Amino acid sequence: MASHSSKIIPLTELAALVADGSSLALGGSFLHRGPFALVRELIRQGRKDLEVVKQSPGYDIDILCRAGALARARAGIVAMEGNFGLAPWYRKAVERGEIRLEEHACATLTAGLRASAFGVPFMPCGGIHGSDLPGLNGWKQIEDPYGTGESVYAIPKITPDFAVIMANEVSEEGDVRVYGTSHWDRIMSRSAKRVLVVAEKLAPSTSFREQPELTMIPHFLVEAISVVENGAWPGSCWPHYEVDYPAVEAYMKDGPAVLKQHLDSAPEAREAAHA
Amino acid sequence: MREWSGFSYIVTNLARFVRPREITFSGVNSALPMLACLVAKQAYDFDFTYINVAGGVDPRPSKVPISSSDPVLAEGSRSIFSNEDFYDLCTRGQMDLCYLGAAQVDGLGRTNVSVIGDWHAPKVRLPGGGGGAVMLPTAKRAVTWRTEHSIRTLVETLDFITASGGMHGVVTPIAVFMKREGRLVLSSWHPAASLDEVRARTGFAFEADGAEPTAPPTEAEAAALSKLDADGDFERDAAIKLR
Questions:
Q1: CA distance A16 to chain B (A)
Q2: Chain A within 8 Å of B190 (Cβ-Cβ)?
Q3: Selection from A235, A158, A165, A117 nearest residue A14 by Cα
């Protein structure tokens, strides 16, 4: 049998693939199954001027703002959720004009990603009529060329530089499996120029051949993967673990040492310290 | 007679919008609608399909999560109906009822979840567009809730129109509004409040023909909610005051 090359690399090398100024579609939603270990590693490596593209960012966009690593965001709804309310450092960054926000509805962001995934310059999106968002973003309304008289908003293509997905399981060759909802991970993986993955576990390649319908992203779309146990911390990664609420609460505290303490107490940092 | 708390008032009156055989949706940042859907499942003697942002379809969660998007809400689900699926369901006109959050609501039932102040120079940057701009105009009925009933939240003029199309219902700690001929009208008020109080604390003008004190929780409604929030954690976290 032909030998294959492994796509598994250390987290530090995965983060090094992301240049300053990159746009990142981050998988998951709010505190659930986000590639948070990679987000933190980008901060440790001092990355700047990043863009987040995500329908429902929270902890990820907040910590990037807190570290001064973010310049732009295209987002639907931004909050910490789970009783924590607004994302405070994101909120301050927008209010002070430190980041440039393109406000979307979740479905308009998806439409932009679909345009990219489908290889077309724009994608019609239902709804939106009567909202101030089209005026804000310059979205054009087009009439049905087939004469129904219906008009829809055409959302321009959004092509992130990277989709970064938090997976439950991967094969060494790069096949990706998630459990529970896929959030928007699937369309992100089809719309971005490059796909990076943080995975909770490595699973045998044969297991993917046995149940191919569980594979969300096939290996040929994936560039590189890091296996990081508890990589979605302090968020959840169903069914492996739930949200670590005390850790989120500790993160939410203001103070000069809090961010560093938080980064140092993350699973990937503790792992590196013991390596 | 059973009495309302601000918390039980909002959750139960949200649940009362659920109708037989329909598809009902609860999303992110929506602990009270999540509880309302779970109350409706237990308290009402009819079938409906409950879908949620965790991909759940009539799930049987082993516990009620703090986060209304927690994957536990897909436990025991008969399918994973993910984000793109339920948005598409809505835009093609098959979503019967969805619960959508709002910071400000106007008399037409339009909402602002984007900003307090000028969008380009915000006093407060709010969570943002979310589901509303697309779901409010395309769902058959959308319902929102506010834990604060005041002229700051129920306004004559929105700071920004995030979503148009008009809420079918609005529930606050002291009132239930429903849409009639394109405007919100008062449907009922908390028995511990009054029509005058609701008027004084509402920023938009509204009609109130036929409005009356809200019927108390039924035994089944009260039992369902106290079972779901057995330790009172949700009620404590929500910290809803009448005044």
A1: 31
A2: no
A3: A165
